[in-house]
């Protein structure tokens, strides 16, 4: 390796000002992964590749759950919520990136909260982090099972389709570095984006939505503003939109594998702008043409033929989404087990055995959870409220206040900024409590009225209509 290339590869030092895009790193803290030519070199991700990984993490199963939430909140209300949470999730992503670049020893949100709250809090949030991404992986497995059902016209039990999806997800998740799995990200992103785009065009061309009555006049029940939804229904809808772009905690381990972590914000801004704009456009069009008759997932909303086309095009994207989420959870557990060990970056038996146990073990857990909550939107909503409200809102607000404690005694403007972060924590707590309550209530009601066929049921829930969310 020539000296010029080596110096370029080793250039990882952030800019030296606090509060800038790349705060000065704390002296004595080392990167989790070292650039090496002996063993596995994890530090190979460029910022454009990081942006693709971020896009695939966010633009995945979440986009299929946003349109049904629009009916509960109304088209205008849902659009405003979507834009607001997109901006908030972008900001908290920046908080996490700045904090991580100041503390380069952090590999995850759990490491960050460990600096602020101590080892016990670190382990608690580490467990929550694994649960969050295992549930997300379960949504990918669930969506893939629905796709197999649609393509085969329910040719086998749904549980078997989900099991096959789990094996594929675990296998793809076993690609060890984000640089290499980033190639899957390109394929997966194009796959799911194309599928949703086909759906958006298709719903404007069909006579009526697939879930609508086959004969007679229909009322889409299109509303601009939500008509006084119940607290539970409103929280489920808000949480569903929130979680669609709340996966910023998964960006932190990607920074640890970036060639130049100081370029993180470039990837973050590009990703969040594209995702928010796409969600707003796609969800608004689908809701405008389907109204209350939106299926969950949304790819089944335009009829049987289009449903097969969409799932055929999007199947690989759904599988890769599950693989990305499984990879994120497995990478945290893997690093947690082998950190400061020679096996972390070696090609030893211990390295491989630990890694494959993490990927296949967590994929199996995701499969079990997907069978317990077989309706797609509810799985997304419970993930958002119980897991991502603390991880994506409360924790970033906490670490910002810890890092800017002098704002409490600063100027009026600084005090207001500090107070805004306290409000951010309060909003996270509201979504955590209210969203979890609302989703659990919705799941219980769905079991009671037969919407869900039961855990490990062969029933196909792909045509379930969740547009109203019980909100009117």
Automatic annotation (TrEMBL):
An annotated GO cellular component: membrane
Residue stretches of biased makeup (Basic and acidic residues): 1-11
Protein's UniProt keywords contain Membrane: yes
Compartments where located: Membrane
Chain intervals for the UniProt region annotation (Disordered): 1-26
Boundaries of every Amino acid transporter transmembrane domain copy: 44-440
Main location: membrane
Name of the molecule in the record: N amino acid transport system protein
């Amino acid at each position: 390796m020539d000296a010029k290339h080596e110096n370029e590869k080793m250039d990882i030092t952030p800019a030296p000002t606090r509060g800038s895009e790349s705060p000065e790193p704390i002296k004595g803290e080392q990167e989790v992964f070292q650039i090496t030519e002996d063993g596995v070199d994890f530090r190979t991700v460029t910022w454009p590749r990081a942006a693709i990984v971020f896009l695939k993490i966010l633009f995945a199963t979440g986009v299929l759950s946003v349109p049904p939430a629009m009916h509960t909140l109304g088209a205008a209300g849902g659009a405003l919520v979507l834009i607001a949470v997109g901006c908030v999730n972008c900001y908290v992503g920046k908080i996490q990136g700045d904090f991580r670049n100041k503390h380069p020893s952090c590999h995850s949100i759990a490491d960050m909260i460990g600096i602020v709250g101590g080892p016990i809090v670190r382990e608690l949030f580490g467990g929550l982090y694994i649960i969050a991404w295992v549930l997300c992986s379960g949504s990918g497995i669930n969506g893939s099972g629905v796709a197999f059902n649609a393509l085969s016209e329910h040719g086998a039990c749904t549980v078997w389709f989900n099991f096959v999806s789990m094996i594929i997800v675990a296998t793809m998740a076993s690609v060890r570095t984000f640089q290499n799995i980033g190639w899957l990200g390109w394929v997966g992103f194009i796959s799911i984006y194309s599928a949703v785009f086909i759906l958006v065009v298709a719903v404007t061309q069909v006579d009526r939505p697939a879930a609508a009555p086959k004969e007679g006049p229909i009322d889409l029940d299109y509303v601009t503003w939500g008509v006084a939804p119940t607290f539970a229904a409103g929280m489920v809808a808000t949480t569903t939109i929130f979680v669609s772009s709340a996966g910023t905690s998964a960006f932190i381990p990607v920074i640890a594998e970036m060639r130049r972590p100081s370029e993180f914000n470039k990837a973050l801004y590009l990703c969040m702008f594209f995702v928010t704009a796409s969600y707003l456009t796609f969800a608004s069009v689908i809701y405008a043409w389907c109204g209350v008759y939106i299926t969950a997932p949304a790819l089944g909303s335009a009829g049987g033929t289009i449903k097969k086309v969409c799932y055929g095009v999007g199947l690989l994207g759904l599988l890769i989404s599950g693989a990305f989420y499984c990879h994120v959870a497995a990478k945290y557990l893997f690093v947690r087990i082998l950190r400061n060990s020679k096996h972390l970056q070696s090609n030893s038996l211990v390295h491989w055995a630990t890694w494959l146990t993490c990927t296949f073990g967590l994929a199996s857990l995701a499969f079990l959870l997907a069978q317990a909550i077989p309706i797609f939107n509810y799985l997304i909503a419970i993930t958002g409220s119980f897991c991502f409200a603390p991880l994506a809102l409360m924790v970033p607000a906490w670490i910002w206040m810890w890092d800017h404690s002098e704002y409490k005694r600063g100027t009026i403007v600084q005090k207001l900024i500090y107070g805004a972060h306290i409000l951010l924590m309060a909003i996270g707590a509201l979504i955590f409590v209210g969203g979890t309550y609302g989703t659990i209530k919705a799941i219980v009601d769905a079991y009671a009225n037969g919407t869900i066929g039961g855990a490990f049921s062969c029933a196909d829930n792909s045509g379930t209509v969740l547009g109203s969310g019980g909100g009117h």
